[in-house]
Amino acid sequence: MAETVTPSDTTPSPTGHLLSSLDPLLRQWLPRQRWFAGKGRQVTGFTPVAVTELLPSPKPSAPPEQGGAPIGRLGLYHLLLRVHQPPVPGTAPPPGDCYQLLIGVREALPPRLAPALIGHVEGGPLAGRTVYDALYDPRPAEVLLEALRTRARVGALRFERDPRQEIRDGLVARLMTAEQSNSSVVYGDTFILKLLRRVVAGVNPDLELPLALAREGCARVPAPTAWLHAELGEESYVLAVLQPFVSGAADGWELALRELAKGEDFVAEARALGRATAEVHTALARALPTATLGQAQLGPLVDGMHERLAAAVTAVPALVPYESGLRSAFDALAGLAAEGQTWTAQRIHGDLHLGQCLRSPSEDTADAPGGGGTWSLIDFEGEPARPLAERRMPQPPVRDIAGMLRSFDYAAHSAQPPAPDWAHTCRAAYCSGYAEVAGRDPRTDPVLLRAYETDKAVYEVVYEARHRPDWLPVPLSAVRRLAASQPTWPDLTRPARETRP
Q1: Which listed site, 34, 59, 317, 435, has its alpha carbon 20 to 30 Å from 375?
Q2: Where are the beta strands (DSSP E) in 248-304?
Q3: Inter-residue contact 299 to 341 (CB < 8 Å)
Q4: What pLDDT was estimated at residue 416?
């Protein structure tokens, strides 16, 4: 059974000395993490937002730990740290991003925890001990689950749960090692805890939207079981969300790549995924306020698209030949608004792609003939790089649709050789499936769809240039298409061909 965390388990910690001793180690370790957003810029310092001791650190005089030693020999700190870096030239110094860290403390790391190593502390209250990313270690991860189960209060940390859902104790934790912008821990085959790494104060859509969908009875999104937040004065930070784990579910991205590798089409799955997306959008429109976008409301959205393109052209010179054509996509949308056309905006997923979708193996509720399962949508945080207020704004649903269309394109270009026809049929099937539920095919508004797909492709170009240069040709191929003067959808009226029985 996991150790229970209660306020009596904690003692005041010398925060200043603790952080000063961790400082040189974190400056080296943080930039190497997949979820660290400030790559390419030096870390110049840290400001503590909150430091909480969850388990007392082992005393320096303790003998080296052997396998199966009691949990009292493990220390655990929860840190919210603001990370300072030099500003981008020509801009004002930013306040610094806030990151959530779980720091484990041991005399020495067993070999199985070698990938979690942060470093060996030379001074301060942890001198002589080893610190590491505690999420790699099942025991600290189980401490978090127990705190959620018991609704613990520790310092500023508030562990909450839905009283209607049971959390069994004794579930073994394991860290998911797939590349993510956050960190996820699976408990047995029952729950998955998503721990946000880069956090901001305010209502986080990754908790807000699944709770709203649960109230609407939308089964396409796992209902939150428990969550962790920090209360710091007038500011609240959502830090983690626990949801049911869909055992045996296939990640949409991996499933698509497997079908591509086998030479199989993805039409039935894409159509079913379109229906699932429309069900979520419909439920969100019922659960939360909608808005009408006319010229006055659309103007700032189009201005943002132009601004992101200008910044992208400066950062990635390969975009220069296409800048005028890309701008025409945004200008065409502004032109329709000036003529009096309006659109409906609502809360949306915000960062929808194949990797944010799971297909469960339950055949009794199959989404489509031959589909062999049910699609669910996960991870409603939105694009973490965008301000929280923007991520919580009502948006045209087509923004999510554009993200999924780009994801089909990515999958097709990951194949060897690339399979553009595969992407074409998937895109058409997805839109057709969406129309079956929503009553409107997104391709019937090609100007709006082109603008949002262009904005997404521009974002992808900048991301790939910074993080994965080998992938840069994928969004650039879309840029060449989208920079054309008019969007083309030859399959607008032609239904996607179903080749599965």
Answers
A1: 34
A2: 250-251, 291-293
A3: no
A4: 87
Q: Give a yes or no: residue 498 inside a domain.
A: no
Q: Model's pTM, two decimal places?
A: 0.86
Per-residue HEC secondary structure of 95-143 comes to CCEEEEEEEEEECCCCHHHHHHEEEECCCHHHCCCEEEEHHHCHHHHHH
Residue 322 structural domain: 250-482
The residue ranking higher by pLDDT, 175 or 368, is 175
Residue 398 and residue 258 in one domain: yes
**pLDDT above 50 for 68:** no
Shared domain check, 211 and 135: yes
Same domain, 310 and 341: yes
Show the CA angle centred on residue 480, arms to residues 271 and 469, nearest 5°.
Answer: 90
Structural domain contains residue 26: yes
In 339-445, which ranges are continuous DSSP H helix? 388-391, 398-414, 420-438
130 in a structural domain: yes
Tokens at residue 138, please? Answer: 């099942």
The CA distance from 270 to 326, in Å, is: 27
**DSSP H or E run through 145:** helix 138-150
**Residue 122, CB half-sphere, CA atoms under 13 Å: how many?**
3
Give the pLDDT score at 59.
Answer: 66
- The per-residue pLDDT for range 425-468, each reduced to its tens digit, is 999 999 999 999 999 999 999 999 999 999 999 999 999 999 89
Total structural domains in the chain? 2
Cβ 201 vs Cβ 237: under 8 Å? yes
State the average pLDDT for the chain: 89
Identify the three-state secondary structure at position 260. Answer: helix
For 146-181, the DSSP string reads HHHHHT-EETTEEEEE-TTS---S-PPEEE--S--S
